[in-house]
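Much of what follows relies on a compact textual record of a protein's fold. With that in mind, consider the following protein and its fold in token form.
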Amino acid sequence: MDERSTKRVMDEMEQTLVKLHHTFEEKLWTPYHSHDLHELLIKFTKNELSEIRKMYGITGVSQLNKTKLAEVLVNEIPARIPDKLSILTNDAYALLLRVVNADGRYPAGDVSSLMVSVLRDLGMVFPVVKDGKRLLIMPQEVLSVISSEQSKELKRTIKRNTEWVEVVKGMLNMQGALYAPQQYEHLGDVMKEPFTEKITEVLHLVGLYDLNLEQGMFSWLHPGVENELDIREAQMERTDIDFYLFTKEQLKLAADPFYVEKTPAVKQLSEFFKILYEMKKEEIDEIVGTVVDMMRVDVRFQFIMDELGEFIELPDGEELTILIDLMMELHNTTRKWMLKGHSPVGLREGYQQQKAKKGKVLNFKDYRK
């Protein structure tokens, strides 16, 4: 499938996702009927109750009917909440505290429905509609537990969880996938503690509502990765280079899904657009961000130029020559996933410094399209 066909398929998939999201919202926000934990749970389907059971790892009850399972959950959820609080991040925990401070009846406003869905599957909050307004309901049994679980140690743990998620998302933005021992070791060095099973639990929970963190068969993935095996294979073939070692500050900056590294090439291209097209900063950032995203996954240079022509009217003559030069410079200085977070120019400079040790020549023709 060529790149234009791929783009068309992606557009069709996006439309389908919009429809699915609408259906998801309708099912999630149900009419208000009670504030009692048992009465809220009994309205769930057996499958929905089973999701809560699985979230808490409750075994030996899968054969129970819906009524009996709801009774088990009423007893088990409050007892198991403290352990689940220890794998939350700042965003989810802050939302729970807002509901607690609202005495268990919090106006939802523009709260993320995906996050709400996960917290509902934990039996902590229940999304409802009352008098045409969305509310998050927290039963008293749950509210009492969360109110009493606000120790300094828990808050430090949640802050640490949040930092782990940030550095992982930053690494995914820069390298596409997280799977290699070198990557996990580097994250441990950055965070000054090993990557543990507990952190895996944190990432799994966040990945249920954060679209910028995906769990593949063998890897944590950036949402822009189309094929997990392809990116792993492409990176594994580059045995001549190691994964780039980012600092903690670099990774936290890159955790922003719209992050673009402010390299000289980015600044020069942005200035070109500003002068030639009199664009606003927001417009420039959107265009440059889109271009960098395509370069990061090594899209063909000509296709990138064609896509750029969808945003702006390409100039001609000397101005077109300047634009192409600027785009080529950006292409060669952009960190690429298949290069494990290195840029072609960065690799060349690093290679020149280590030529005597490595004794092999890197081919950069593939990166000068």
In short: The chain has 17 helices and seven strands. The longest helix spans residues 3-28. The first strand starts at residue 30 and ends at 31. The two ends are 20 Å apart (CA to CA).
